[in-house]
Amino acid sequence: MSFDLPAALAALPGFPQLRGSRTRLRGPRQDDADAVFALFSDPEVMRYWSRPPMTERTEAEAAIGEMQEAFAERDKINWVIADKSDAVIGTCTLFRFDARHRRAELGYALRSDRWGQGLAHEAVSAALDWAFRSLALHRIEADIDPRNDGSRRILERLGFISEGLLRERYFVGEKVSDTEIFGLLASDWRNGDR
Q: For 125, which of 77, 100, 106, 182 is 20 to 30 Å away at the CA?
């Protein structure tokens, strides 16, 4: 008998609330707009992103609305990462669910002033653990700009394996960039030493 991923997603009563020792993942709220704007308007955070930095707070408001709508349709789960004081310090997303192949993609961003503290690793680890256990996913993929050494270290520490380079995949403004694909299997996660 196969696992029914669409039914599992549809049965979620709300954003899954996930906790680490220093972070928690929760659904976005409209009052998170200032923090979301601060995150996605930071040129350091957006340096290797597939879109340019936000320039207007209204973009953050719209992004939160899109996150909430996508969850309502169960197209993606786009959590905000909050610290112990509930201040938003990043995002973590599972998206492009593929029920037949039990696969999804992963994305994440963290405020640049919080880099190097293990917070992204902790938050992403919670999302991965939940996805493999609760959604019975077989594979999770992530793609990064190959120049993004920080993100590469996070993925490798979580057990992801680099599986190849896609040349000139994204246009960000007028610049084109490559992307590197990473994959993590449920068996890698269960047997991993993170």
A: 100
Specify the CATH architecture of the domain 5-137: 3-Layer(aba) Sandwich (3.40)
Phi and psi dihedrals of 99, rounded to 5?
-65, -45
- Rg of the chain in Å (alpha carbons): 16
Q: Which sequence spans correspond to the domains of the chain?
A: 5-137
Q: Which of the 8 DSSP states describes residue 52?
A: P
CB 165 within 8 A of CB 130: no
Q: Please tell me whether residue 70 adopts helix, strand or coil conformation.
A: helix
Q: Are 158 and 121 in contact (CB under 8 A)?
A: yes
Residue among 163, 81, 62, 98 at smallest CA distance from 51: 62
DSSP type of residue 161: E
Separation between Cα atoms, residue 90 and residue 39, nearest integer Å: 7
Model pLDDT for residues 125-159, shown as the tens digit of each residue:
999 999 999 999 999 999 999 999 999 999 999 99
Question: SS3 string of 1-23?
Answer: CCCCHHHHHHCCCCCCCEECCCC
Question: DSSP label at 192?
Answer: -
Q: Which residue has the tokens 């993004």?
A: 148
> In this structure, what are the phi and psi dihedrals at residue 46, rounded to the nearest 5 degrees?
-90, 0
